[in-house]
Design a protein that fits this description.
Length: 305
C-alpha cells in the first residue's frame, strides 16, 4: 500500500480475537477487539477528524481561511490536527489541564495551538472556553463533537461496516466505552440494524453518571460523562458497566504483558466490561469491543509503573 497523506492510513484496523486459552472466557465463546490504536494518530478519533473535515469542506463550513477550535481530552485534537495538515488549516484545542502531556505535545507537533482550562471545570469548562474563543476569532469552526450528529455518523459509516465485513452477523454483544458517546451510538446503530438481537453495553469509569452515580474524578482517560450524551435517544441500550480505575489499569497492563497490546486505559476498562459480559452470556457467545487508543501517550502518567 502506497500513500501520499497520512489520512489514507485511517481505518481498516484489525480485529484481535481473545480466547479461553489466555483469558477467563467460556470455552466456546470469544471476545473480539477492534484495534483502533493502530490508526496513524493513535486513536479511534482519526476517523472523526477525517469525517468532520471532509464534511466541513463539502458543506462550505470549512474554507482555506478556517481556524478549527475544539474542546477535547486530546485524541480528537490529535486527529483534527493530523487531518488539518492535509488542507493547511489552523487548529486550536481547549484541553482540561489534567489530560496527558503527551497528547498535548502531539497536538502541538502537528501544528496546533493548545489552551488549557482548569481541571475542576471538567469538559464543560473546555466547551465554554471554546465557544468564547470562537466569538473572537474570525472564520472559526467549532465541530463540537459532544453535540454534533456527524460524530456518531462517522462511526455509523466507517467502524460499523468494517465490523460486519469481518465478522458477518455472528455477534451477541457490543461493549464499548462512552466519552462523547459518538463511537458507541454510531456503531451500535449500525450493528443493531444488521443484528437486531445484539446486546448493547456501554462502559464508563467510576465517577461517571450513566449508572446513576455522582460525577467525580477518575484516572481512566477518554471515557466517562458529566451529562447524558445527546446521541442515545433512539438506542435500546441493555446496560452500562462501571469500571474502577484499578480494574481498568490492571487489565491494561495485563493486555500488554499477555498479548502485546499497547493500549490506553479506556481499552483496559472496555476489556474488563467485555469479560463480564461474555461470562454472563451462554457458551458460544461472541462479544465485540473497541480499543480506542495507544498506551505510549500515557507513559508520564505511569500507565506501566
Ligand atoms: N477512549 C479514549 C482514549 C478516548 O479518547 C475516547 C474519546 N474521548 C473514547 C474512548 C470514547 O470515544 P467517544 O468520544 O466516541 O465516546
Amino acid at each position: 500500500m502506497i500513500i501520499t497523506t497520512m489520512t489514507q492510513a485511517i481505518g481498516s484496523t484489525p480485529l484481535f480475537k481473545f480466547t479461553s486459552k489466555d483469558y477467563p472466557i467460556p470455552e466456546k465463546s470469544f471476545i473480539y477487539a477492534k484495534l483502533e490504536h493502530l490508526n496513524p494518530g493513535g486513536s479511534i478519533k482519526d476517523r472523526l477528524g477525517q469525517y468532520l473535515i471532509e464534511e466541513g469542506l463539502k458543506t462550505g463550513k470549512i474554507t482555506p481561511q478556517t481556524t478549527i477550535i475544539e474542546p477535547t481530552a486530546g485524541n480528537t485534537g490529535i486527529a483534527l490536527a493530523l487531518c488539518a495538515r492535509q488542507h493547511d488549516l489552523k487548529t486550536i484545542f481547549v484541553v482540561p489541564q489534567k489530560f496527558s502531556l503527551e497528547k498535548q505535545q502531539i497536538m502541538r507537533a502537528l501544528g496546533a495551538k493548545v489552551i488549557n482550562t482548569p481541571t475542576n471545570q471538567g469538559i464543560k469548562g473546555a466547551i465554554a472556553k471554546s465557544k468564547e474563543l470562537a466569538q473572537s476569532i474570525p472564520h472559526s469552526y467549532l465541530p463540537l463533537q459532544f453535540e454534533n450528529p456527524l460524530n456518531p455518523q462517522t462511526y455509523y459509516h466507517t467502524l460499523g461496516p468494517e465490523i460486519i465485513q469481518d465478522l458477518s452477523t455472528n455477534l451477541t454483544s457490543f461493549v464499548a466505552g462512552i466519552g462523547s458517546g459518538g463511537t458507541f451510538a454510531g456503531t451500535a446503530k449500525y450493528l443493531k440494524e444488521k443484528i437486531p438481537a445484539i446486546r448493547l453495553v456501554g462502559v464508563e469509569p467510576e465517577g461517571s453518571i450513566l449508572n446513576g452515580g455522582e460525577p467525580g474524578p477518575h484516572e481512566i482517560e477518554g471515557i466517562g460523562v458529566e451529562f447524558i450524551p445527546p446521541f442515545f435517544d433512539d438506542l435500546n441500550i441493555d446496560g452500562f458497566e462501571t469500571i474502577t480505575d484499578k480494574e481498568g489499569f490492571d487489565c491494561t497492563r495485563e493486555l500488554a504483558r499477555k498479548s502485546g497490546l499497547l493500549v490506553g486505559s479506556s481499552s483496559g476498562a472496555a476489556f474488563v466490561a467485555a469479560l463480564r459480559e461474555v461470562q454472563r452470556l451462554p457458551n458460544g457467545s461472541q462479544v465485540l469491543t473497541i480499543f480506542p487508543d495507544m498506551a505510549d501517550r500515557y507513559l508520564s502518567k505511569g500507565i506501566y509503573l
